[in-house]
Amino acid sequence: MAADLSQLVKAYDVRGVVPDQWDERLAELFGAAFVRVTGASAIVVGHDMRPSSPGLSGAFARGAAALGADVTEIGLCSTDQLYYASGALDLPGAMFTASHNPARYNGIKMCRAGAAPVGQNTGLADIRGLVEQWSESGAPAPAPTPGTITRRDTLDGYAAHLRDLVDLTSIRPLKVVVDAGNGMGGHTVPTVLADLPLTVVPMYFELDGTFPNHEANPLDPANLVDLQQRVKAEGADIGLAFDGDADRCFVVDERGEPVSPSAVTALVASRELARNGGKGTIIHNLITSWSVPEVVKESGGTPVRTRVGHSFIKQEMATTGAIFGGEHSAHYYFRDFWNADTGMLAALHVLAALGGQDGPLSQLVAAYDRYVGSGEINSTVADQADRTAAIRAEYGARPDTTLDELDGLTVTTPDWWFNVRPSNTEPLLRLNVEAKDAQTMEKLRDEVLAIIRA
């Protein structure tokens, strides 16, 4: 009987519960299908610290080698370290991780050579089809000559590449608290930040895929509390929090206050534009702050607004030749990193900016954080289209509003904007509001929520 992969294969990756939804037998078929669809003669494979990751990634490697591909296993790594290996070695890659999901989940993020993403429309649907077919009819016939499986350590090369892109050698000494959440930041941070004028205070660096301290999802404010308290207790200059596979980084200032990912996007954009002679395209999604396109224009660059989601960002990066892109979810994309996302490189930029001047981080980022945002508010609704239509009817008739439907519904005036987007996987509407002051933002937020939740 063919495996049901409808709940396992998502828009951009494979993700599900082990062993309930998938196991090493299926992982081996995914390895074979990945080679068949990409036509690769060689690939690179890495994995995170989850208990099931070594077995799943090993099975994937065996499936790929059986179809004739030479496999380079890089072992424990962050997702952006796998992207580095794919770019530096010019090989398609597979990363075994479920990012910030709970311990019993695992998944695969796949890319073509040069870290080009594999999603539903770029090979993932074909891979799913082959795995379903082979799970029913049996594994494909092996190649006449199987591929080899070899090990290679890429951590030092990854760290050196990042350090080549941001010079931290001459910054003032900084005290940095880093919460790795028992994820892969505990593996990469010690090497990337070694021998710099930094005093690193480690939190939860022990690799433990059962996440004994808190979920490795810094987007949830509850998971930042330990870091916020520690930054204040240590009198530190900055706090950094990484998610489970360490491709996203969140920043906390010296007061223990979270720094908006939009402010980080604006700060890094200004630095990347300065590196490129004040010229270049910067990508931002439509729910990042107004601050981002303003700072980009002030820095000489060209802002380009996209839909939410890394596939849209990466597509626009490639189409426009953009030098940098940022999202509200703390994904940061760099042309000098094969257009892939790396929270670590964004963190180095923030450390360089902070250490290159004498003021505290809160003062530094204030220039990049000019408006008041609600953050993303999710509401369960019976009919997404009906509630969106009600909002369009309420605000569309007002003389000072403009509406666009690039992604959900965005309503804009000179003093505020909001966006309502339906979830693709749950009966939710997601609301983001931004205004010039807190009172206006709160009033608008409550108005729109009353319509959504009517």
TrEMBL record:
- Keyword vocabulary terms for this entry: Isomerase, Magnesium, Metal-binding, Phosphoprotein
Family (UniProt): Belongs to the phosphohexose mutase family.
Q: Which Pfam families match?
A: PGM_PMM_I (PF02878), PGM_PMM_II (PF02879), PGM_PMM_III (PF02880), PGM_PMM_IV (PF00408)
SUPFAM superfamilies attached here?
Answer: Phosphoglucomutase, C-terminal domain, Phosphoglucomutase, first 3 domains
**Annotated source species:** Streptomyces beihaiensis
Q: Which residues form the Alpha-D-phosphohexomutase alpha/beta/alpha domain?
A: 7-132, 157-256, 264-371
Stated name of the protein: Phosphomannomutase/phosphoglucomutase
Residue span, Alpha-D-phosphohexomutase C-terminal domain: 376-449
Q: Does the keyword Magnesium apply?
A: yes
Which cofactor names does the annotation list? Mg(2+)
Give a yes or no for keyword Phosphoprotein in this entry: yes
